[in-house]
């Protein structure tokens, strides 16, 4: 069912986000605290480093290996200091029908489009509806779809709904495009009579702004009462502050909300003590914008 | 303060009868703290409830950015740590003695052992703690309402209360029994609860419970879909919480008999169980003469379910308030403008 981690703020050592905290993203591979599932089907990230060549373009890394064992990633993480990050570990059903390949590893980002996206959740019966989505995907993006996931289609629908997907868009423009994409999916689901709970937690980041969506279609409706992710809204948390690091033997952002310049948004907190983390409300989006060194954050209702 | 007086100071515990008071006192131990000593920390395993006899305790919760927020202090006669007896989540705040303090400690393990035996005093104590949580949640919601820190962008469409729930056919007991949050009821309890109740359907967007209702005599249990609890604002509804399958709605009003604490509407098309309030009376207002023996085991199970729901509701109200406070500080404070 996947886990996502995103960061926007002052440069921070990648290792401190991916590895160091007791419930870091990579530790969630086998020990997620808020999801009873292993996330073994790949790791991917886009990381923006202001000191790098062409700083607006992110480092990208995608692998189908279990990243916990990936020495190359560990070595990179001890060198890179991005100011923005979107990272994802993929969790899938435990059976042989699932396609494990690089094309299905998040985050998704089409050539020339600044915006990248990672998804936590899945759309019920997606294979039976996906071709009804084709009319809503711009041809220039449809030809980029290489994988078999619902997530890549959600990304393609969203960037297709942006007036100009090739520039940095304001968070409100990104949210409007996401809302349009989700409305299309709702309509197609309705046409196919699909009303099974389908989680659609999404994080979009372009290195400048970040939009995190906590949303579920038909939440609470499932034939299998105990199914994970249907009776519980999939989690999404955030924290903010400055100088992310190990303080008083605890990985956290410090300095108080009033001096905050950095935001972490993730499927679940990176530390087992989540006292300084807050949940993104259900059916809502968290918008984080950069204005020079400043960050602003807002909660928007998401009604689709 | 003499030990016998300790219940009189708390409106919720003052309703315990003499037998119940004696049972609670017999099963409590004493605690004492020097000024500055920590009683428990946020995130600790919650293993006991404390009733303060003398002194003063400070409550502090943490916020993003490693900020802290001090809550109202605990004074003699007041209870702290009550979540520990009602659910099994970690401590939600740090409590420190502001003055030399002492009082009674009731362990979670002892409480649940007595409750499993349907000991009447402990059953009454549990009801008192539920009323306490309901009161505290009302206070949090009143603060949210009064301070109005909501962002206009976060408001939902205003609720229409014109529609009426429609009957739904089906096996309510089977649906109840399949919900993890209601597992304590067991198949027999699910059947006992479903028999006097009715299944109804509500369409997405329709209002179900209005804060202005003056007869909060129905418990709603979500079987399928989800309900949204919100507060009416100029321009729309401020969402406080979402209640999915297995959650009980309208519990605060049933516990304290006052008007509903929030407006409730369907966030998704729903199938709900409508439980008449009279079915709940032995659970809501137990006394030492109630038959709380084996014939009514499901009353005890339902009491546990309602207790967990009340704690869940309070945690969500607190989280909503904390989010609003933290975001306001974040956006007004300069946000890296210092750099």
Describe the structure.
The complex is a heterodimer of chains A (304) and B (339). Chain A is built from seven helices and 15 strands. By secondary structure, chain A is α+β, with helices and mostly antiparallel strands. Chain A has one domain (3-123, 199-301): Aminohydrolase, N-terminal nucleophile (Ntn) domain (Glutamine Phosphoribosylpyrophosphate, subunit 1, domain 1), CATH 3.60.20. In chain A, strands 1, 2, 3, 4, 10, 11, 12 and 13 form an eight-stranded antiparallel beta sheet that branches. Chain A has a five-stranded antiparallel beta sheet with strand order 5-7-8-14-15, with helices on one face. Mean pLDDT of chain A is 91; it is low at 225-229. With 339 residues, chain B is α+β, with helices and mostly antiparallel strands. Chain B folds into two domains: 3-145, Jelly Rolls (Sandwich); 151-283, Sandwich (Jelly Rolls). The longest helix of chain B is centred in the C-terminal third of the chain and has 36 residues, at 297-332.
